[in-house]
């Protein structure tokens, strides 16, 4: 595999994204790694910190067919998947695809919808298809869900169940901008108006090739041992309801490979595993207290497992 250069499309995408989503270069890189690893992304934070802007930015820069759904408590599964209507001229029913039939579905404020509506995405996220009215229909490829959610302590939210959370390869938080980034926003009046001017940095099929290259990044036996030790430590932690599953371990490896790839390397280092571990693990680990694992919990886990 040829290593990335400073002029690679990924460098251009990250540079362009960082001109729109200010002061969040690490979160932007994590989001891109999630897509390179063929995963779905959950962005959780307060309203107004740039969650939707980041999703729009990535979709435009990657050249994906984009669809946005604002989730509400009265939304039904058919509002996402689609519905059949009777066509009088043809004398039969015709299926009208819902917004899920796109390469990138932005599920905005997903936890404002009821669990029944949330679950409509499970098959789409796991299988790349939807089954409605007894018929299974494939989704466009590649297919990604970028979901945003508000903190669960806010009024009018429905917590995502573990089965839904596990479908997201990563969960990231944006947080407040630093002083310099916020000043730039105040002086420019915001960056959302730049979205229509963004153009794709990739041709059709280019991203699939980048995904294949990211998936081919070498992970040595020592790195796999280290990853397994981290996963095993979560299964032995008495503070946790349960540890990371094999699917979570595969997600962690895929994310670490993608992170190494964006850094221009052909092999995974333990530092790559550490870099993506919080985003891959926190939403999958629940403490006996009922809360999800914190950044401090993951940092303690990393300190407890010796480097290879």
Distance between the termini: 25 Å
Q: Under CATH, the topology of the largest domain is which?
A: Rossmann fold
SS summary, helix count: 13
Which CATH-level-2 architecture of the largest domain? 3-Layer(aba) Sandwich
- Average predicted local confidence, pLDDT: 87
User: How many beta strands in the DSSP annotation?
Assistant: 9
Low-confidence stretches: 1-7
Task: Give the biggest sheet.
Answer: 5 strands, parallel
Order of strands in the sheet with most strands? 2-5-8-1-9
**Tally of discrete structural domains:** 2
What is the top-level CATH class of the largest domain?
A: Alpha Beta
- Briefly note the structural class of the backbone: alpha/beta
CATH homologous superfamily heading of the largest domain:
P-loop containing nucleotide triphosphate hydrolases
Rg, nearest Å: 20 Å
Question: What does the overall shape look like?
Answer: globular
Approximate strand percentage: 5-15%
Write up what this structure looks like:
It is globular and about 70 Å long. Helix 9 crosses helix 11 (246-262), helix 11 packs across helix 12 (270-281) and helix 12 (270-281) packs antiparallel against helix 13 (295-304). The strands form 3 sheets. Strands 2-5-8-1-9 form a 5-stranded parallel sheet. It has a two-stranded antiparallel ribbon with strand order 3-4. By secondary structure, the protein is an alpha/beta fold. The chain has 13 helices and 9 strands. The two termini are 25 Å apart. The model is unreliable at 1-7 (pLDDT under 50). It folds into 2 domains: 1-216, P-loop containing nucleotide triphosphate hydrolases (Rossmann fold, 3-Layer(aba) Sandwich); 217-308, Helicase, Ruva Protein, domain 3.
